[in-house]
Amino acid sequence: MITRRIALGLATALGLSLAALPGLAADPLKVGSYPANPPWETKTESGKFEGFEVDIVTEIAKRLGTTVAIEGYDFTALFPATASRRIDMAISSLTITDERLGSQSFTQPYIEGALGLATRTGSDVAKVADIKGRTVGTVATTFAEKWLTERKDELGFKELKTYTTTANMLTDILTGRLDAALNDVVGLRYAATQMKGLDVPDEIITGERFAIMMTKDHPQLAAVNEAISAMKTDGTMAAIFQTWFGVEPAAGSLTLTPLPVPVPTSATN
């Protein structure tokens, strides 16, 4: 009977991955996910995770000869979970930044994101410039928080409130505790279809790029990135995109373009 240790030794000697050996799958990929971020990812009443990025990591695991074990985390907890290697990767429409690349690794991006402005129906806040003198909200540690903080003087908002959950933030908009909120535009537009009285009147193009976050220099980073490239090339990524967003990805977009593992901008200068 072949043991796992012997199999690992054979795989190393032959230059094979353990997942490639017949009948011996690799350990499941441990994935952390913010469970209330539709259509990117959400946890159903039955306890199952589903969404655009859930389909992506599930397909990646299949191509690596394994499965995924997804666990729910608060958004802010995803970062220490990957840094401490409690999980292999995190999904939650996560933006690649130089700061994050200092302590985490990212796969190639597959979506170019944008921020959305959420307000109550009938609000006189119709564009980002209208938040001057207002109380605005966002989810803590997100790209939106950083974007707002860096532009506080320019935008002139009165107060910035941060939240651990999107649901609490949107509830405060509907109850009047917030004048507006900024967050991922895709998630906000989906929420507006589910919450009566919520509007998304403005979109801010930021150039942010969404990807899977992994522990720093994870041993499977290259293999995961290669799987994403293959998914972009063979049409799988486009099919997942259309399933969850209802349209085909634009020609030449990040969703269709294979890319290398990102490095900090400063490292390329």
TrEMBL record:
TM spans (from-to): none
Domain (Ionotropic glutamate receptor C-terminal): residue spans on this chain: 28-247
InterPro entries per record: Iontro_rcpt_C, SBP_3_CS, Solute-binding_3/MltF_N
Signal peptide: 1-25
Keyword ATP-binding applies: no
Subcellular location: Cell envelope
Alphabetical UniProt keywords: Signal
Domain Solute-binding protein family 3/N-terminal: start-end pairs: 28-248
Keyword RNA-binding among UniProt keywords: no
Family matches, as CDD domains: PBP2_peptides_like (cd13530)
Recorded GO MF terms: ligand-gated monoatomic ion channel activity
Domain of life: Bacteria
GO cellular component, one term: membrane
Annotated family: Belongs to the bacterial solute-binding protein 3 family.
UniProt-recorded name of the protein: Amino acid ABC transporter substrate-binding protein, PAAT family
Species for this entry: Gemmobacter megaterium
